[in-house]
Design a protein that fits this description.
Layout: E1 5-8, H1 16-31, E2 37-40, E3 50-54, E4 57-63, E5 71-75, H2 94-102
Parallel strand pairs: 2-4
Antiparallel strand pairs: 1-5, 2-5, 3-4
Length: 103
């Protein structure tokens, strides 16, 4: 991902799925598009990448040693989806990338 939203939740009473769903919801509220990827600390999930359903869409959950415990890095990683390079190499926000695709 070129950009994303870093979410922190260390509440032991809440399960991982709830934490990821809230992080994804905040990303969509802030940037106007649904995320397709969430990086988590490897201790939070099994060793393998997982795909979970979020609002009827697939959301990849990927363990990464670069993510601290209780942190969730959500965003769009799918090529051409959002945070795309615009003219002159600038980075476009997800909302602007969505508008550009519609033109």
């Amino acid at each position: 991902m070129l950009a994303g939203l870093l979410w922190f939740d260390d509440d032991p009473r809440r399960d991982l799925a709830t934490k990821i769903a809230e992080a994804a919801q905040r990303y969509q509220q802030k940037f106007g598009v649904a995320p397709d990827t969430c990086y988590v600390n490897p201790r939070a999930v099994a060793e393998q990448e997982q795909v979970v359903a979020w609002q009827g869409r697939p959301l990849r959950v990927i363990p990464s040693g670069h993510i601290l415990a209780h942190h969730f890095w959500v965003g769009v990683e799918k090529e051409g989806s959002a945070w795309c390079a615009g003219e002159g190499g600038s980075v476009m926000s997800p909302a602007k990338a969505e508008q550009a695709r519609r033109l």
